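Hi Y.,

Following your request, here is the sequence exactly as I used it, all 125 residues.
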Amino acid sequence: MHVHITEWTGKAGGKTPHYFSAPSGEPLALAGLWERWRDPESDASFDSATIIVGSASKWMSRFHDRMPIILEWSSAREWMRGADPAALLHPAPDDALREWVVSTRVNRTGFGDEDQTLIDPVNGA
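Below is the corresponding structure, written out as tokens. Let me know if you'd prefer a different format.
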């Protein structure tokens, strides 16, 4: 499954989606937390996850005031072990991401979620 990282700019009714990826096109390692918990009333188990965000880099600040914490792949194992997570929570460098405008179809969940053309640059972008 692909997770699309997008941010929307503009005003309601005319917003533009921007897609973000690593400059190399490789997957990003994002700092996150995961937990499995049990509902005591129903005894059902649930998985829960969140991506940790911090202040936006100067480059990202034109899109949003915060962004995910991007880990170097060499640090991902340290993050998973929980050795010193605070040491890994720092803003990404300005060259950590690339961006392009994509189709507004990325906002339609549940239909075509695996459609790789969702992240194709739109004409003129």
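Strands lie at 6-9, 16-21, 29-30, 32-38, 45-51, 53-55, 66-68, 70-71, 98-101.

Thanks again,
Q.
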